[in-house]
Amino acid sequence: MLPVDIQVALKKLYKDTKTQDLILKIGKKETELKAHKFILSTKSEFFKKKLTKETKEYKNESIEPEIMQSIIKYFYMGYINIHSGNCVPLLTAAIEFGIEELEQIVLDFFQDFISVENVLDHFNLFVEKKIQRAISHSLALIAQNSKEILKNDKIFQLLPESLKWIIQSDILEIYSELDIFWLVLNYARKKCGEEKYVYQKNAIRRQNRKIKKEFQNFSQFIRLSQLQDYEYDEIKHFHVFLPKHLIDMNQFWDYQYDKSNKFATQIEEIKKKYEDVDYFREKRSYSQNRNILRLLPQTKKTLASVLDESQIQQWIPEFSSDIQPIYSAKRDGFDCRSYLEKCQNVPNLLFLIKTTRGDIFGAFLNSSFEIKDPLAVIRFKDPSCFVFIARICDKEEYIKCDPQNKDSVSFAYYPDRGPLFGEGWDIGILEYMVILSLKLGISFQKPQIQMSDEAEKILSGVFKKLVIEEMQVYSLSQNQNENQNENENENQNQNQNENQNPKSDSISDLDSN
Of 138, 186, 185, whose CA–CA distance to 162 is shortest? Predict the structure, then answer.
C-alpha cells in the first residue's frame, strides 16, 4: 500500500493532460487515450520493451477502449473495478501486457465467479492463454460436477486442446470410462457436422472417415483397459470409428476376461507399443461410492425389470419382471444378423425398445417366425400381435395399441433392419438398428383413452424418428417350450400326431419379395 501523499500525487498525475507524452489509439475506431510513458513502462513488461524515447503513439485494435482506460487508471490509482462483464477482456489484456499483479487480481475474481453454469464458457480462454492456475481451478470444478458438465452441450464448443485437458484428468467423477468414450465419439460427430443420422450408405462411409480422423485425436486418452467386459461389448460395434491401437485392445480384453494366457505375449507387446498413452494407466480417482456402483447388479438391469409387472400381465399373463432377454442390442450387437440368430424360431416374443429420450416402446409377438432368405423382404401376420408404450421421457404411461383387423400385416422383415411391426411400420427399427421409426395408427389402432400431451404427439406422428439406446427381446415361454420338447421326444414314437402348443406355430408367411 502506497503512502497517502504518493497516492494523491499519482491521482493528480493521472488527470494532468499537459505532461502526458503518449497517445494510445485503441480499438477499431482508434479512440484516443493519453498516458505517461514512464508509468506504463514501470507497471508493464510489455510497454517497458515497446516504448522508447522516440515513441509518441501506440495502436492496438484488439482491445476495447473501456478496458484500456480501466488498465491505465489502475496503473495510476492501484485499484480496478472487476465484474462479470469485463473480467474476460481484462484477463486477456493483463496477459498480453505482462501485468502479473493485475492478472492475479482478475484470477482471484474468477475463482469466485466461475461456476458450474459458466466454466465451459471460459475454459477455452484459460487453455489458449495457458493460465495454469485457472485451468487447475476449472478442472477441479468440472471434476466435482462431471455428471452435469459432461452432458452439457457447451462441451461440444470446446477447442480440441481444451477437451484433452478434461478427458486426461485423473479426478473426473465418472461412473465408468464408457462415459469418456461416448463423450469423445459425440464430440467427433459434432465436429464433423453430423446433427442427424445419415441414411445414404456412401455418405455414411465418407462421414465415418471424417469422424474416425477426429476421434483419433482423442482416442489415446481413453483408458479402455478400465472398461468392464459388458461395457466393451457396448462399444465394439463402433469398430468402424476405432483406430488401429483400439483394435489391438481386443486382444487385451480376450486376455483380461477369458482369463487365458493365449495372448499373454502379445499383451506385453501391446503395452510396450503404447506405453506412452493412457490405456494401461492407473484408474481415475473413482470415489468409493462410484466403485460400489460399478459392481452393483443394476449395471445389468433389464428393461423388463423397470416395467410395472401387474400392468403388463393384464396384456400378457406369462409376463414376469425376472425374465431374461434372449437378445440385447448392447450385449449382442446392433446388427440384424445377431438379432435373427437369437430370435427366430422362438415363440411368445416380447420386444422392448428404449430411446435416448427415455421412452420405452414394446411389442408382443405370439408366434414364432423364420427367415430362410435374409436378402428377401418378408411379411407375416399374427392376430395376437400388439404394440404398446410403457414410458415417455422416463415417465410411466402404459398405452396398448391392438391390431386394426386380424388380416393386417403384423410383422415384417427387411434386410439390414430390425423388427418392423405393422403394414406401415407402426413401430420399426431402421438403419442398422439405431433409428426407431414411429407411425402408430396404420396397422395398430390408437386407443380411445385419456393420455398425456407427449403421448398424443407420439401417436399423432410428431416424432417420426428417435435414436435407440437399447433393444431387448424376451421369450416368455422358453422354459415351458423346452420341457414340452423333452416330453414330445419321449413320446414321439407313441403319439407322433399330438402337439398341443398352438402358440408355438410359426407365423404364416404372407409373401416373399
Answer: 138
> Whole-number mean pLDDT of the chain?
76
Strand partners, 22: 35
pLDDT single digits (tens) 435-463: 788 887 788 888 888 888 888 888 877 76
From the list 373, 396, 410, the residue with the least C-alpha distance to 451 is: 396
Alpha-carbon dihedral of residues 82, 85, 87, 88, nearest 10 degrees?
-170
Quickly tell me which residue has 425398445 as its cell: 353
Rg, the chain, Cα only: 33
* CA dist 141 → 112, 121, 155, 169, 178 (Å): 11, 13, 14, 12, 21
Q: How confident is the model at residue 234 (pLDDT cuts 50, 70, 90)?
A: low
Category of 441 on φ-ψ map: left (φ > 0), alpha (ψ -120 to 50) or beta: left
Cα 100 to its chain centre, rounded Å, is 39
Residue 139 has a CB neighbour count (10 Å cut-off) of: 20
Which residue segments constitute the domains of the chain, with CATH numbers given? Answer: 1-113 (3.30.710.10), 174-300 (no CATH), 301-480+508-512 (no CATH)
**Cα separation values, 489 from 274, 347, 349, 409, Å:** 56, 19, 24, 34
Residue type, 364: F
Cα separation values, 332 from 85, 205, 237, 361, 473, Å: 52, 23, 9, 20, 11
User: Please, are residues 274 and 266 in contact by the beta-carbon 8 Å criterion?
Assistant: no
Which residue matches cell numbers 425376472?
322
Amino acid letter, residue 460: S
Residue 194 has pLDDT above 60, yes or no: yes
pLDDT at residue 25 in the model: 93
DSSP structural state of residue 255: H
Query: Is the pLDDT score of 386 beyond 90?
Result: yes
Nine-digit cell at 279? 490405456
Q: What mean pLDDT is predicted for residues 327-350?
A: 82
DSSP code string of 95-121:
HHTT-HHHHHHHHHHHHHH--TTTHHH
Phi, psi of 375 (to 5 degrees): -95, -5
Cα–Cα distance list, 490 to 347, 482, 498, 500 (Å)? 22, 13, 12, 15
